[in-house]
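thread: overnight batch results

M.L. [08:02]
morning all. the overnight job finished for the chain we discussed friday. pasting input first so we're all looking at the same thing
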Amino acid sequence: MDEETELNFAQAESPLLKRNLSWEDLVSILGGIVVIYILLAHATFRIMAWWPHERALMYLNAFMTQLSFVLLIWVLKKIRDWEWADFGWRPVSLKGIASKIFRVYTIAWVINISYVLVLFKYGLTPPSSDVYSKLLGHTTWYTLILNLLLAGVLAPLVEETLFRGIIFGGLQTYFGKWTSAVISAAIFSGLHLQVYGFFPRFILGIALVYLYDKYKSLYPSVALHALNNIVATLIAASLS
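M.L. [08:03]
and the structure it wrote out:
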């Protein structure tokens, strides 16, 4: 069986490989993400020099990051002539899988709480000056709404399309399922630029890949991502 026949067979077997990405596509997507972070960070610091409203600029940066990701997804869709189903937006009954989402969420929380307890045992505590602490802490009613919109709605929709639908789906063309899962989860967590939170987000990334792969749809992973972010946002608000 030649290489082209094997790829066509793999695409027929797995809905996640219906449309494959070349290495050039994957490198371009990852490069685009890095460029977005660099340009927005540079612009934020430039604006901060004459408009020193740090929290407002962090919100602007966060929303612009997500909107830039949307543009990146849209460009890929147009260039490769993909349908939304090719990104992983395939119908699935959430009612039938709600219990699975909650079980996976519970397991992820148990692992991450154990991780936090170990860090506390060795005297390590999360920094209070990072961007997430500043955005989620000391909330008012309108910043809570912004946090829920950003973390609970926009981020799950956009990031699941990008990191699970495109990056994980693209990596599966060349690697095994769990190698692709580990790489995509590491990229997902690393791009949040928070050392303390790398492991919890990595575990979340693995859980999101598991649901996406199991149901061949982004809807379950979006639901888990949204649930995780909403709970974290409400906990942070209650502690501030």
